[in-house]
Structures are given as structure tokens and as C-alpha cells.
Design a protein that fits this description.
Blueprint: H1 2-5, H2 14-19, E1 20-23, H3 29-36, H4 38-44, E2 60-63, H5 76-83
């Protein structure tokens, strides 16, 4: 009964990717540190494996808020230039 009311969402779907921010809940801290030390490892001649990214929280989807469309404002100098003469057009 729950499957009918709450079907699983396919995270790889293009529509889901554009409508939601996807947080997979993994801890990437050790991987980021490993990448920052990359030149050090090259200089030392060692090649340690990339550390795993463990699951630290549940995956969650947060909806993307739509931005409000705002009217573009004119530059005041351009506005004076257009309105001061015979041209009464503004951007």
C-alpha cells in the first residue's frame, strides 16, 4: 500500500535533477583532503588509494526555489541621454 502512495524517486532522472538539490549524505572530507595532498604525494613518490566516502546521513531531496523575474533597471546616465533630447526612448 505504501508503494502506491509513495513511489520511489529515480535520482538519475533529468526532471528530478533540475527540480531538486540532491544530497547523497556521504562524507567527502577525507577525499577532499586526499586531493589537496596530491602534489605532496607526487613529490614523495607514494600513491595511496583514494579513501572511501562513507554514508553519514540519509539521502535527501530539497526542492529548488524558483527565482523571481525582476525588471531590469536602466543606467541613470543612459536614461538621461535618451530622455534629454528628441529621443524619448528608455531601455
Amino acid at each position: 500500500m505504501t508503494e502506491e502512495h509513495h513511489p520511489m524517486t529515480d535520482i538519475e532522472d533529468e526532471l528530478v535533477r533540475t527540480a531538486f538539490h540532491i544530497d547523497d549524505g556521504r562524507g567527502y572530507t577525507q577525499r577532499i583532503i586526499h586531493r589537496m595532498k596530491r602534489n605532496f604525494y607526487i613529490h614523495e613518490g607514494v600513491c595511496p588509494p583514494l579513501p572511501p566516502a562513507p554514508q553519514v546521513a540519509r539521502a535527501k531531496l530539497t526542492p529548488v526555489k524558483k527565482t523571481k523575474k525582476r525588471r531590469k533597471s536602466c543606467n541613470k546616465e543612459i536614461k538621461k541621454e535618451f530622455t534629454s533630447g528628441k529621443n524619448d526612448i528608455c531601455c
